[in-house]
Structures are given as C-alpha cells and as structure tokens.
Design goal:
It is a single chain. The protein is of the alpha/beta class and 249 residues long. The protein has one domain: 3-Layer(aba) Sandwich (Undecaprenyl pyrophosphate synthetase). Helices cover 43% and strands 14% of the residues. The chain has a 6-stranded parallel sheet, with helices on both faces. α4 links the parallel β3 and β4. α2 packs parallel to α3 and α3 runs parallel beside α4.
Length: 249
C-alpha cells in the first residue's frame, strides 16, 4: 500500500454475502457463516497491521432473530467457538475487544464469553475490535433516549440540556470516534439499521466481493478509495484533495 495514504482511524464493515457464498458452492448457509468467521479473524489481523485504530463489524442484528431457527442456532454455535478463537487472536495482536448491542438477549454462556473477551483484552493498546451483536441502530437510539428521558424525569437534567453531544454519550459507541469509512460487501446498497447516528459523515465503499472472499487486498482497495474522497463535513469544498493534503502534512 502507498505509504502516503491516510489510514482511516475507524473502519466499520457490514459483513454481507455469507449465505450467497455458500449457495454458489452448493453448501448450507451455516458453512458460509463459518467461512465468514475465518475472514473476520484475518481482517482483525490485517486491520491491526495497517494501523487502523477501530474496526467495527456487524455480527448479528436485532432483525437476525427472524431467520430460520436452524440458522440462528448454527450462528450461536459459531459465536461460542469463535469467541474462544478471538481471545487468542486478540492477545497475540494486542487487540482490545468491545461489544455493542443488547447482550441480555443471548444465553448466559454467550454473555459470559462476551464479558470475558472484554475483560481479558481491556489492557491491550492496539486496535479496538468492536463486535455489533444483537445490535440495531434504532434500538440503540431508543435505549439512549430512554436513559436521557429518565434523567429528565428525575430532575438530573433539563430538556434544554439535551444536545447532540449528550445523545452521543448515551449511545453504545460513546467510547470511540464515528466511522471514517464504512465497507459493505456483497454489493447491496443499504445501511441495514447499522450505525445510523454515527455514519452521518462516513464515506461508503460497496464491493461485489462476498464476505468470505474479502481479504487484505480488498481492504486496501477500500482504503485507496477513501483516499480519493474529499471529506467536507458540510463545509465549502477545499482546493485539491483533502486526503492528499493531509497525507503530505
């Protein structure tokens, strides 16, 4: 990768295409999810080596519970296995693991596994790997608004005190910056209820590559595309390419 490229601080990914990958090969959908988990492992290592500070992946949405019972059960089995694998990878790569979403909906052993991942990697200082599980952006915002409403009811704050900053501080993602770059594999052009608040000024990159086939070369293509964008955040266009100007500072 070109050394002059700006590496985005926070990359978010929608891991799409596991089922289609399996179908193309005449395999059950569960095999696509299994291969997808392997890709997650490799992407964590690749992101850490590239110098990305935060990597957030959409592992399981609040809507995914609507899927076939057998597929959901297979996904839970994969969670149990790969949480143990991820703990080893995180320790080997100085990665801190965090989880966003409502973990209370999972079985107790999965909750313990998620808690263990966070606790045992809390002191790591490299990449922060964020897993969105039982996550939906609308549910996240509902929970944040509920917490703020309770503070207003108790008289801890006034309604006029509710600012964008206060809302952001009550979201699951309060501990990290908003994504600079959102990657979606599998060619679909939608957010799927993912980080709706946080992606207000995020650059989007959509690829036809199905998630199990995603690799470091594809990640670098996305970063190259990011570097060709001019991020103005609603301001007046600047002369030249902002990313190039930043990389030459």
């Amino acid at each position: 990768m070109n050394e002059k490229y700006v590496i985005p601080e926070h990359v978010a990914i929608i891991l799409d295409g596991n089922g289609r990958w399996a179908k193309k090969r005449g395999l059950p959908r569960s095999m696509g999810h299994k291969e997808g988990c392997k890709t997650v492992e490799q992407t964590v290592e690749d992101a850490a080596r590239l110098g990305i500070r935060y990597l957030t992946v959409y592992g399981f949405s609040t809507e995914n519970w609507k899927r076939d019972e057998g597929e959901v059960s297979a996904l839970m089995t994969l969670f149990r296995f790969y949480m143990r694998r991820l703990l080893v990878i995180a320790k080997d790569n100085n990665v801190r693991v965090r989880m966003i979403g409502d973990r209370t909906k999972f079985s107790e052993d999965i909750i313990r596994g998620l808690d263990r991942l966070e606790e045992e990697t809390a002191g790591n200082t490299g990449l922060t790997f964020v897993i969105a599980v039982n996550y939906g952006a609308r549910d996240e915002m509902r929970r944040a608004v509920t917490k703020i409403a309770k503070k207003v009811e108790k008289g801890e704050i006034r309604a006029d005190d509710v600012t964008e900053e206060l809302i952001a501080s009550e979201l699951d993602t309060a501990f990290m910056p908003d994504p600079d770059l959102l990657i979606r594999t599998g060619s679909e052009m939608r957010l799927s209820n993912y980080l709706l608040w946080q992606c207000a000024y995020t650059e989007f990159y959509v690829t036809d590559v199905l998630w199990p086939d995603f690799n470091r070369a594809e990640l670098e293509k996305a970063i190259e595309s990011f570097n060709r964008r001019e991020r103005r955040f609603g301001g007046v266009p600047a002369a030249g390419n902002a990313a190039e100007e930043k990389s030459s500072e």
